[in-house]
Amino acid sequence: MNDSFQKHSSSWVSFSYISFGSAAFMLALGLYMMPLDLWGKGYLAMGILMLVQTTVNITKTLRDNAESEKLIRKVEDARTEKLLVKFNRSDED
């Protein structure tokens, strides 16, 4: 079982950071220019921040679950391999 993982290029990482920064800037500018009182803007800002936070949390949780399942599969594969080797050795005797 070969789990190769291709690392992201520095261009892609830079693009991701720039995209996030520009989206956050445009959203903040739009919120600032919106014709609402401070309470309305504050409510929208809190909602936006909570949405970003929960997006990061759910992404991390899903990735952690996938990594956990991958580790469990590796352990099960190692046990199966050990049993097969033991079984093959007993057949040779």
Condensed summary:
Helices cover 85% and strands 0% of the residues. With 93 residues, the protein is mostly helical.
Written description of the protein model:
This protein is mainly α and 93 residues long. The protein has one domain (10-92). The protein has helices at residues 10-33, 38-92. The longest helix is centred in the C-terminal third of the chain and has 55 residues, at 38-92. It starts with 9 loop residues before the first helix and ends with a helix. 0% of the residues are buried.
Give the overall average pLDDT. Answer: 88
Contiguous uncertain segments of 5+ residues: none
Number of DSSP-assigned strands: 0
Q: Based on Cα principal axes, name the global outline.
A: elongated
Distance between the termini: 29 Å
The biggest sheet, with number of strands, parallel, antiparallel or mixed sense and barrel status, is: none
Radius of gyration: 25 Å
Class of secondary structure makeup:
mainly alpha
Q: Total domains, how many?
A: 1
Instruction: Give the fraction of residues assigned to helices.
Output: over 70%
SSE pattern, N- to C-terminal:
HH
Q: Which assembly state applies to the chains in this document?
A: single chain
SSE inventory with pairings:
Elements: H1 10-33, H2 38-92
Organism: Rhizobium leguminosarum bv. trifolii WSM597
Protein name: YiaAB two helix domain-containing protein
Keywords: Membrane, Transmembrane, Transmembrane helix
